[in-house]
Amino acid sequence: MGRIARFLRLPRSAARIRIDIDDEIAFDIDMRARDLVRQGMDSREAQARAAREFGDLEATRRYCEDLDMQIEADARRVSFLEDVHADLRVALRGMRRGPLFAAVVLLTLALGIGANTAVFSVVRRVLITPLPFRAPEQLYRLYTTPSATDGDNDKLSLVELTELATQSRSLAGLTLFGSYQGVTYSDDHTADSWQSVSVAPNFFDVLGVRPVLGRAFRTEDFVQGAPSVLIVTYQVWQRAFGGDRGLVGRVVQLNAKPFTVVGVLPEYFVGPTFNADMLLPFNVDAAMRSPRFARSRAWRSVARLRPGVSLEQWRVELAVLRQRIQGAHPDIKNAGVVLPTPLHEAIVGGAGPVLWLVMGGAIIVLLATCVNIAGLFLSRAAARRRELGIRTALGAGRGRLVRQVLAETLLYGVVGGAIGIILGAALKAALLRIAGPMLPKLGDVRIDAGVLLFAVAASVASGIIFGVVPAAATTRVDVRDALGDSGARGASRGAATARASRLLVSAQVAFALVLVVGASLFVRTFKTLLDTDLGYETTSHQATFFLNFGAGRRSPDSQQAFVALFMQRLHALPGVAAVGYTVTNPWNGSWISPHFQIEGRLLANDRPSAVLSTASAEYFKAMGMPVRMGRGFDASDGRGGAPVAVISESMAQRFWPNSSPIGARIRLTDFYAQGPSDTLLAREVVGVVSDVKEDAMSNVSPTIYLPAEQAPVGGGSFVVRTTGEAATLLPLIKDAAHSLDAKIPMVSPRTLRDVLSNIVRRQNVAMTLTGLFALLALVLAGLGVYGIMSYNVLARTREFGIRSALGASRGAVLGLVLRDGLATTLLGLGAGLLLAAGLSRFAASLLVGVTAHDPLSYVVGLVILGLVSLIACAVPARVATQVEPVEALRLE
């Protein structure tokens, strides 16, 4: 207690104050009683009268106690501020005396704080900041279990959603959206492709959001035959219309049809799973009257839970409702179990695990930074032994010395943090360039007050963390030892400091190993993804893009003629080897999954389904999709040709396991027909092509390809195979399209190598950022090992001189130093293995083709850290071999 009192400069405690006040009151009463006794009064009567004259003892005691407590508090505050001011002055003088040391510490800390600030700014915006909706914690997306094979597992049919909305007592509302379409916006000067999404009448009510300009959709907007209206996003309002507040009420042309703009969405509005440019009203009642649309699993939904209803209660209700709906609608098959997912989680998707992983890596780097700086302060401890000894001799206690060291480290932490915040803004921009396409559009990422508070807290915490060990190790000073010795002899007595330094270096090696192992895991994952056979080639010699013809601008015959002429123009470009066309492509998926039948066969599942796509004559060649059996499409499969189809390899193996499908006839639902949903068209199978996958983790789906010339055209993807770099032809391709029709926008022009990069973007981001953090941690670990070995060589100079004088060879001295350094490294590697094994499981969901405890990745980490440590030890070890006995003994 005495040490704490001296450290805090508290002369008197509250109990001591009360004792002093009682003594003072007793003294005053006793002195008055003595005066009365001298006047002839009896001592007992004098004591009583003196007490009466004094007045209310308890009130006086309380008054004096409060007054003394306030005086002591003021004195403590003033004393503390004076001490802090003095400590900061000493710390600033130390910075000026050692500018190189200060620069290294501040730069190292700024990198750690800057990296954490940048990553946290993204994490805060994407993962922590609530969605811009009313009570967003009550909003959920509806998914089905993977057993649902008819469509994506985030889609349900209108029949199912309507039943859930009307029968559920747990919901305050349920809305749906879907029917994504690319539309062409055009005016007198430009043409652009916009992404539209159709929404139900209660869409805005369920989400709890209102336009910032104009109005939301009204009931009359959803009536069949009503004037066409739309609501645009804030970004489109700014980009296409310059933020014109007179936009509401204006008529714009979409697909050559007039639409009236009735509203503008808020700046930070984000769709439940989409980033559309505009919203259109969807007539649910009209769609329900079409059996094909009502039962097609093509609609996404958002539900709002009633206040007070738990998620578990709702899940129980959903299970009951699901059975009831399946009983009432047995024709809806493969429905699966409905699983509610928080809307925020659904929007963030796969970005969440990557961002938390990157945040963890940034924190590990900051810890490694703190450990490195603590080692630097310990290395400087030998030079300060005399200073601390003088302070101790002048009366400074250990607590006072600890506070001085912590004040210095906190000053470094605050200054380094300020630099780190400035650096964080630049690092944030770099981070967004790397990870931006993977992130949901949830608004601008800014260094706001919350991020600044995090950065300040990290700076202060860092100052404390890297100051604790030096403060504990350097302030236990023996005055005679500190004032009597200097140079190598003084350094040789810093055994405690040396042990602390070795532990810090081991910690650096452990942190570095964790990051190197993580980076190795993601490198192997990335290589696995790049080596995965997607069923088509992904090279820089293939270019792809989408042309949105704009439904209604052309007749089907005119569209077909345009495609044919455009493909002729593409063939005429230099270096073009093949040109393919399709309505859908593997990386965008397909929204068409018709049922089919095989003529002459009764299937166990009487309504199997397959993904439906189209392909031009050269599509398979342009994509690099090998034909396994039969043939692909050719010129004979035009509009006047026989109805034919090409199927995927998995479909052939599934439905013709022991025979050839060539020549078989299949009947499939005509999704392009305007008639009933049971209209079936017979097509002859003429070929089998390789399976394609959306990404390395997706399953292949049975697929049916139709000749592109035999299907309506509303826009589609082109693939151009070239003999050179395809990217150089993209401007020429755009000119070719605009020469035929300037009102047709070219969307997403890129190479198939870029497509592959987008497919593996999550793992690429994790690999890139983890690799950068690992590289930084490796540098810190190497510097740490080098620093401690240099310090140890200096501390043992006399020992090495004596060994040399006694006949020790330079090889023996070299081995002695290397063994010491490698022992420190091995301790860190052992701790790092345990830490990496415990933390790697958090990255398991991002790994493909490799487990979280992949032995090769751990071996790679050990080898890399071992080599870095060996190199870091080699230089000080060589210095130790150069020590001359005479020079070493002269230091005595």
Global outline: globular
Beta-strand segment tally: 21
Tally of structural domains: 5
Count of helical stretches: 29
Q: Estimate the mean pLDDT confidence.
A: 80
Strand content: 5-15%
Given helix and strand content, the structural type is alpha+beta
Alpha-carbon Rg, integer = 38 Å
Gap between N and C termini, in Å? 42 Å
Low-confidence stretches: 1-10, 147-151, 485-493, 671-678
Question: Main beta sheet, described?
Answer: 7 strands, mixed
The percent of residues in helical segments reads 40-55%
Short précis:
With 892 residues, the chain is α+β, with helices and mostly antiparallel strands. The chain has 29 helices and 21 strands.
Tell me what the structure shows.
The chain is α+β, with helices and mostly antiparallel strands and 892 residues long. It folds into five domains: 2-87, no CATH class; 98-129 and 352-484, no CATH class; 146-336, no CATH class; 509-532 and 757-892, no CATH class; 549-744, no CATH class. The strands form three sheets. Strands 13, 14, 15, 16, 17, 18 and 19 form a seven-stranded mixed β-sheet that branches. A six-stranded mixed β-barrel has the order 2-3-8-5-7-6. The protein has a four-stranded antiparallel β-sheet with strand order 12-20-11-21. Helix 2 (14-38) packs across helix 3 (43-54), helix 13 runs parallel beside helix 16 (449-474) and helix 27 (810-839) runs antiparallel to helix 28 (855-881).
How does the SSE layout of this entry go?
Elements: H1 2-8, H2 14-38, H3 43-54, H4 57-97, H5 99-128, E1 139-144, H6 158-167, E2 171-186, E3 191-199, H7 203-207, E4 213-214, E5 229-232, H8 234-241, E6 251-254, E7 257-264, E8 278-281, H9 284-288, H10 291-295, E9 299-305, H11 311-328, E10 338-342, H12 343-348, H13 351-379, H14 385-393, H15 398-435, H16 449-474, H17 479-484, H18 487-492, H19 495-531, E11 542-547, H20 556-571, E12 576-582, E13 596-598, E14 611-615, H21 619-623, E15 627-630, E16 644-648, H22 649-655, E17 665-669, E18 680-689, E19 703-707, E20 716-722, H23 730-740, E21 746-751, H24 752-759, H25 761-795, H26 797-805, H27 810-839, H28 855-881, H29 885-890
Parallel strand pairs: 3-8, 5-7, 14-19, 16-18
Antiparallel strand pairs: 1-9, 1-10, 2-3, 2-6, 2-9, 4-7, 5-8, 6-7, 11-20, 11-21, 12-20, 13-17, 15-18, 16-19, 17-18
Helix pairs in contact: 2-3, 2-4, 4-15, 5-13, 5-15, 5-16, 6-11, 13-16, 13-19, 13-25, 15-16, 19-25, 19-27, 19-28, 20-23, 25-27, 25-28, 27-28
